[in-house]
Amino acid sequence: MSYQRFALVYDELMEDVPYDHWLTHTINQVNIYNENAKTVADIGCGTGTIAIELAKKGYDVTAVDLSDDMLFIASEKAQEQSVSLSLYQQDMRELSDIGPFDVVTIFLDSLNYVTEKEEVIQTLQRVYDILTPGGLLLFDMHTTFKVKEVFENQSFSFAGDDISYIWTSVPSGKENGIYHDLDFFLLEEQSGLYERFSETHEQRAYEEEWMEEVLQEIGFSLVNKVGDFQADDHPGERVFYTVKK
């Protein structure tokens, strides 16, 4: 899947995402479990919104994404806001030649895009290897509940002045797997006509018991787990893990 066109509309589509909740969660967890942390890697950073805000808080931030187009926009945004970021184009399954870091984040269900169990294990091992002793990994994932009860065989739509989309989710054939088929309609300013382009995103959710076993086998200690930002709201649609090396 190419993110070239998606990167151009990503921030507009995500404008209602409560990024401040992710930021508050991160700062809270770091203050509790690794208060002397200075270096952070944001893996699957997208257009850099969270990475930029963490840099503003004084952390030395490295932003990593698979998409050059996402990173280009992240770089532009960082420059506009006078923020320094180190940017790397890498696949999270093949992290190399970066780090070590006191904190690694993989947010906004980025890890759900790794759709083979062996590759999830590989990704988490690579993250473990680039963490300092006592370092933290913070990540969130769509739950199996969300895949089955919210996404599966459902359609969603959005109509804006400049962009509209139709989003349909269907089972991928893998256990707790889902395809998101998206049709975008983007207004061309000069012609006044809408251009259509399509993308398919594949994600997979994993049972929490399996995930916790994998984390333990790699060497992580689970220090906190919450659902949808609130411990009393779990199980829910999203689960947040804080694990320590």
TrEMBL record:
Arranged from A to Z, the UniProt key words for this protein are: Methyltransferase, Transferase
Record keyword Nucleotide-binding present: no
Any one GO MF term held by the record is: methyltransferase activity
Family matches, as InterPro entries: Methyltransf_25, SAM-dependent_MTases_sf
Q: Which domain of life is it from?
A: Bacteria
Q: Does the keyword Calcium apply?
A: no
GO biological process: any one?
methylation
Q: What is this protein called?
A: Class I SAM-dependent methyltransferase
